[in-house]
Amino acid sequence: MQNYKAPQRDTLFVTNELLGFEKHYQKLGFEDATDDLVRAIYSEAAKFAENILAPLNAVGDDEGCTWKDGEVTTPTGFKEAYRQYVEGGWPSMSHPIEVGGQGLPYSLSTSMAEWFSGANHSWAMYPGLSQGCMETLKAHGTEQQKKVYLEKLVEGSWTGTMCLTEPHCGSDLGMLKCKAEPAEDGLYKLTGTKIFISAGEHDMSDNIVHIVLARLPDAPKGTKGISLFIVPKFNVDADGNITDRNTVKCGSIEHKMGIKGSATCVMNFDAANAILIGEPNRGLNCMFVFMNMARIGTGVEGLSATEAAFQGALSYAQDRTQFRSLTGVKNPDGPADPIIVHPDVRRMLLTQKALREGNRALAIYCMQMVDVTQYSQDPAEKQIAEAKLALLTPIVKAFLTETAQETTSYGMQVYGGHGYIKEWGMEQLARDTRICTMYEGTTGIQAIDLLARKIMGSKGELLKVFTTEIKEYCASIRDNSQFNHWSNAIESHVDEWLQMTQDIGLSAANNPEELGAASVDYLMYSGYVTVGYFWLKMAVVAQQKLDEGTSEVDFYQSKLQTAQFYFDRMLTRTRSLVSAINSGSENLMQMDADNFFHG
Known about the structure:
- By secondary structure, the protein is of the alpha+beta class.
- The protein is built from 19 helices and 11 strands.
- The strands form 3 sheets. Strands 3, 4, 5, 6, 7, 10 and 11 form a 7-stranded mixed beta sheet that branches. The protein has a two-stranded antiparallel sheet with strand order 1-2.
- Helix 6 (106-119) packs across helix 9 (283-319) and helix 15 packs antiparallel against helix 16 (513-547).
- It starts with 7 loop residues before the first helix and ends in a 10-residue tail after the last helix.
């Protein structure tokens, strides 16, 4: 595969030109986060992604992780890359100075996490899980817990995990059986098995801090009876010094389709020392901090795969010669023309490009909203940002990962038969990315969370907060006739979105299965409209730059042309989604479960 290049220019377009991040940072009190500093940090992050992580990507896929007697060895170079990551100060970037962090915004570190994942998805899983662990401790840990655990995590000498799923319950956490018994000195003894634990065991850090969901002896049934615990791999004293080995052990690692360099572990807890986080039976509420961070992070993984697939496909399409252009020879000195001249190849590349840039705008917008929820001193501003995040988080997680399945498939398709061959790297991207629609809640779970819990649960108020922003923006550019067609398209979709939501709610009042039947199509519809809104905004900014006489004419002209492709060929996908939603639940539910197969 061609060398991965961190998309610095496009990220700066979104942060600086589209979303006004320099003013955003100043408003939130990050005076040091100047444009010059951000660009310098971006430059170093790009070097790390391109020169350290990308060369290890195929190595991780070839070697995978090895398990022996409960210990996991990561692929060649992974441990050394993590050492350089820690030495570069990357783990501490967005954490408070008082716990050893650098006091920089969440969005700054998370925007670059895309590049690390794009360069090497498997490796990026290890530090990625630590971020959610740290956020959970920051939000719900005691001062002593922060001193003992958070400082080491921020430093990067320790890493973290989230331990939710068990063999029998999957995503239905109300069924979990892992138990915690009170013990001496305020500790608990935690027993049970967790599965699919990313980075649950490895050789890259001195200790691993597991954040574990379990039940207390007198806990109510269901999700209301779940508590949250810290379970370290090695026990520590009151000053954070490692003592002896805790009774938690990796029972095995999974043999997977992709992300083979990332250890996916079965973790066995045998009366392991555990420390309660937060209040008893409120663990799922505490874990939501971790889970929401992880959902945005997983969406960013989908975005990173789209970026990498686009880079590979574009490079190949520009070099590979096959057949002649339908409108005449374009490469007279060669026996054939580059395949980028062919309309269908351009259809695939432009689909990747439109999703690459539109999805990035949506993801970074959500990072901006996280900044506001974490750092703003204005309660009303925080409330609005929280409402937008509640709505958009399941869309980011599901839409960015579902569309990544399409874009990585096109990455293979542009290469033709070579895309199926390991040495080019396209098939690894497709395999590595396949998991993203499944973990942190499948697409179906995200969809029902969006439609039932967030939208219907708020009686449509969460949706109105975001759609009001869209409508106000469309009204603000109404005098710009150049964009009226696209603006009108977005406005009409927003009206349809609101009406469709009301119609589904009325149908569900008579038959609750209407929610489940509509949910995934509804989420994808929401995703296409939301990304369309950001493409409208990007097009307006691009035209403004062209009108100002920018020297980057090709860059901004490309934005306008990609926007046209999106509105003509991508937003129109909503028509089939509406048709499916309107067909209702009967075509899904009328068949008896025993009547599916007739061999």
